[in-house]
Amino acid sequence: MSRAFGESNLVVETDPIMAEPVFNRERHIKYFLRCLKTFLPGLYTSNDSNRMLLAFFAVSGLDLLGELYNKTTLEERQGYIEWIYHCQVPSGGFRGFTGTNFGLEKRTITNEAWDPANVPSTFFALVILIILGDDLSRVKRLECLQWLPKMQREDGSFGEVLGPHQKIEGGGDLRFCCFGAGTRYLLRGKDGDNLKEIEDIDVDKLVAFIEACQTYDGGIAEGPFCESHSGHTYCGIGALTFLGRLSDNHKQTALLSPGTEGFESLVKWLAARQTSELGDEEDEDEGNSEPDESQSLPDQFGKIHLEESFHKLANLPTLTTQPIKYAGFNGRCNKYADTCYSFWNTATLAMMDRLQLLDADRNRQYLLEKTQHIVGGFGKSVGEPPDLLHSYFGMVSLAFQGEAGLETVDPVLCASHRAVQHLHTLSWWK
């Protein structure tokens, strides 16, 4: 299996009649089944503490393909559920994997910081349980909602874990803001009257922090005064969408209000992320290129006249009128396309109801002909082997575009609408 995962051959099959790229659904099913039921390749060892996230990609990937309940048994699904509950922390929330669990009988107030609940893992644990059809009756719901405000910093952002002396540790960027708002959304539901005694997060401070992360070019950064980035943009808009879904009376932020400068500049920035710069042609040319005489030009400035220096400049490629066939997305200005950014950008546009602005056909061509892999799954970019993250996000982007063989997806929860329907059957959502 490790040899198969190391292959770099890409699928370029086309339908001989329609001459269109083919979504190899059966191969993707096999890929996600391998990741779920067998050992992952050795390269995943460094991600062992993120096992909850890997489990989400594998389980939700099969659900997105409509095969989770066909390709797994009831006993297997129950086993996955039990593993997730084994990751639940007594004081609320979920750990990222079982490796930090040193036993309930040894746990004290003094040492519980050694095995803390993790904000991202808590969100993904809840979503996996929902996908698997669990009723969340064993989730320490009230404890989790009491723990969540403790993870919010004074500036409105969220941390990752609680360290010794209840100190907020870990990153403070918009990823944790999104997962904090998402956990609140999943567990509070419409049952606000029964939660009046439980302190809520400071919604206004969270909104203000997200708004402060929007940059001069319209995109959203990991924090104020940082570079705009598609992944953090998705997390910022996702957090605001989670908050808005629970409060019809809350003041609408400019980032979600069409016609405002914040909204329109963000839409323009997202649309500008679609690019035909894939990195494949440039990389192929590197090995065959002749030595560039212009590299030594700075040393020659003092030895030649200005007119002579023009002849030393490298020749620029001739502009071509060849039509663009592939156009993926990048996450920052002047970067190559990357499979996961097809998700981060299209999902954000979907939440903003502006998905129609992307070139869906060329995004599909890019994903299916450039990064779809022969063994199933998707690679990060042209020539890369598949991995769980890019495989899942590649499929979700295609699902937004109505790809046959995929379930529809809720862009903010990043799970199937079937799972969302199950969520809304829980008691605190009725």
UniProtKB/TrEMBL annotation:
Region annotation Disordered: where it falls in the sequence: 277-298
Keyword Iron on entry: no
Keywords per UniProt: Metal-binding, Prenyltransferase, Repeat, Transferase, Zinc
Record field: compositional bias (Acidic residues): 278-293
Transcription in keyword set: no
Gene3D superfamilies, per database record: 1.50.10.20
Molecular function in Gene Ontology: CAAX-protein geranylgeranyltransferase activity; metal ion binding
Similarity comment: Belongs to the protein prenyltransferase subunit beta family.
Protein name, per record: Prenyltransferase alpha-alpha toroid domain-containing protein
Upper taxonomic lineage: Eukaryota, Fungi, Dikarya, Ascomycota, Pezizomycotina
